[in-house]
Write a structure and sequence with these properties.
Elements: H1 8-11, E1 19-20, E2 25-27, E3 35-43, E4 58-67, E5 70-77, H2 81-89, E6 118-122, E7 125-129, E8 136-139, E9 145-147, E10 167-168, E11 175-179, E12 189-195, E13 201-208, E14 219-220, E15 224-229, E16 232-234, H3 236-240, E17 246-248, E18 254-260, E19 269-273, E20 281-286, E21 290-297, E22 322-329, E23 338-346, E24 351-352, E25 363-368, E26 381-386, E27 391-396, E28 401-403, E29 407-410, E30 420-428, E31 434-441, E32 451-458, E33 464-469, H4 476-485
Antiparallel strand pairs: 1-5, 2-32, 3-4, 3-33, 4-5, 6-7, 7-8, 8-9, 10-11, 11-12, 12-13, 14-15, 15-18, 16-17, 18-19, 20-21, 21-22, 22-23, 24-25, 25-26, 26-27, 28-30, 29-30, 30-31, 31-32
The protein binds fe (ii) ion.
Fe (ii) ion binds near residues 216 and 279.
Length: about 475
């Protein structure tokens, strides 16, 4: 088995929507944990077409809702335009990942979003994200789809790609986002935009990448935006053949790109680095003179589902990623990019205290194998890492469990960094993937969960997750006003 099937349990399709009131729990669910732990993943509406990949499943959102020590659970498929059309036709109409040439003519002009990758909160709505499309807006309580093409009140043209990994500015609360292949499939254009807390677009620019390809995540600091692009190239020949239109080209370099926030983008600087892969950012910041960009990096192609352009077989070791700190002297135009491996932990899905997304930070959290575990693909531990001491602590799950991406929740609005709870879901391989939710004191992860919440069934598949505090849930009348203005 390879490292990406690693997440076979967390990504396993379910195909059913579930609601559970008052989930049973062992231990005391903290009464000050008030809000929603939202996640989304790729599920199956219909079986995948031959040659298609699990990345193309339909978005299935779930929430654990915490109130006064009680937990309710709910999951719903996102009613994307694609889902609704396929539901009416009772068959797939967009059968190939990011390949519109394979679409049924009846869906021409509809959003191709699966909304299956990430969720964030914006103005009383949950936005479900897929990087090739605009967000889909959902109701926080019911998870019903409110707007399948959320264009921020007409400010982003339909067809605009919107990353699944926008950053929330730690100073302003603004959403900073980008759209890759902004000129259409195979385009090397990257659109950049910033949306303020009132939903107004306050900045936009456009830059060009060194090559057209898949750019999954990026970095935003107080003064800069940075990309680390890896040669997961757009592949027009594969698109014409009706296949997933990407391949890995190990003959191409990777690049760090840096530009100023709020400029016109013309200052973008791309610096070549050795070829490497990886997808996700943990955190990033600048100190005025130097950029720090912490992310997972693999020696080569990170995705078993994306073929190598030279025809070579997928290299599981080369696709395994570890956390690195990339840094660059911004004052020296001749500076080279420096890489430092931070921990000996396999780290495809690292998270931080999200209040620190654009500023210096200390702690990170992730699901990972134990460092000495011979099974390198299965996330069986939660780790809390501490950049100040460069130490980490681990909690190891029961033997039959695979763990999903963990999420940090501040204890209260004024909590110091890392003071709060860590939430994560485990899937029991020996019990039909029946799932538990683990709740930790985030400062004592190694001591095990404070409480374990039991679902009677498998939790919906999960890629990424987000916390919405109870005080952020709007009054019904306020949401109606937002919708009326949008
Ligand atoms: Fe991601």
């Amino acid at each position: 088995m390879n490292d990406k099937i690693a997440f076979g349990a967390t990504y396993a399709p379910m195909g059913a929507e579930v609601a559970v009131h008052d989930c049973p729990a062992d231990g005391a669910v903290p009464r000050d944990l008030d809000g929603g732990f939202f996640s989304v993943g790729a599920d199956l509406q219909y079986p995948l077409s031959p040659g298609n990949i699990a990345f193309d499943g339909e978005g299935h959102v779930r929430v654990f809702r915490f109130q006064q020590g009680r937990v309710d659970y709910r999951s719903r498929f996102v009613r994307t335009q694609r889902y609704v059309a396929q539901d009416a036709a009772r068959r797939l109409l967009m059968p190939m990942y990011r390949n519109p040439l394979c679409d049924d003519p009846s869906v021409a002009g509809l959003s191709r979003s699966t909304a299956n990758t990430h969720v964030i909160h914006h103005r009383g709505r949950l936005l479900a994200l897929k990087e090739d499309s605009l967000p889909v807006a959902l109701d926080l309580e019911s998870l019903e789809t409110i707007d399948p093409v959320y264009d921020f009140g007409g400010q982003l043209p339909h067809g605009t790609p919107f990353t699944a990994h926008p950053k929330i500015c730690s100073h302003t609360g603004n959403i900073v986002a980008f759209g890759g292949e902004a000129g259409g499939p195979g385009s090397d254009a990257i659109a950049l935009f910033e949306i303020d807390r009132q939903g107004r677009k306050v900045w936009e620019a456009q830059i060009r990448a060194p090559y057209a390809g898949m750019i999954h995540d990026f970095a935003v600091t107080e003064h800069y935006i940075a990309f680390f692009v890896v040669p997961l190239l757009f592949d027009g020949e594969r698109m014409q053949r009706g296949l997933v239109p990407y391949s890995w080209d190990g003959s191409r370099k990777s690049y760090l790109g840096v530009l100023r926030r709020h400029g016109d983008g013309k200052d973008i600087r791309w610096i070549a680095t050795p070829t490497c892969g990886g997808s996700h950012t943990l955190g990033s910041f600048d100190d005025g003179g130097r950029l720090y960009f912490d992310r997972e990096i693999s020696p080569s192609n990170p995705y078993v589902v994306i073929p190598n352009r030279d025809g070579s077989a997928y290299d599981a070791a080369g696709g395994t990623s570890y956390l690195y700190r990339i840094s660059l002297d911004l004052k020296n135009s001749a500076a080279v990019v420096e890489f430092e491996q931070l921990y000996p932990l396999i780290a495809p899905l690292p998270r931080q205290d999200d209040r620190y997304q654009t500023v210096p930070y200390r702690y990170g959290y992730m699901g990972c194998p134990a460092p000495d575990d011979p099974v390198r693909w299965k996330p069986v531990c939660y780790a809390r890492i501490d950049h100040q001491t460069r130490h980490y602590v681990l909690w190891k799950a029961p033997a039959d469990v695979s763990l999903g991406e963990p999420l940090f929740v501040p204890k209260h609005s004024a909590a110091r960094e890392g003071e709060g709870y860590l939430l994560g879901v485990g899937w029991h391989h020996s019990d039909g993937l029946r799932s538990d939710l683990y709740i930790f004191d985030a400062e004592h992860v190694g001591e095990g969960p404070l409480a374990t919440v039991h679902l009677p069934v498998q939790a919906a598949p999960q890629i990424h997750s987000w916390w919405v505090g109870g005080q952020e849930y709007p009054q019904r009348s306020a949401v109606a006003q937002v919708d009326a203005k949008a």
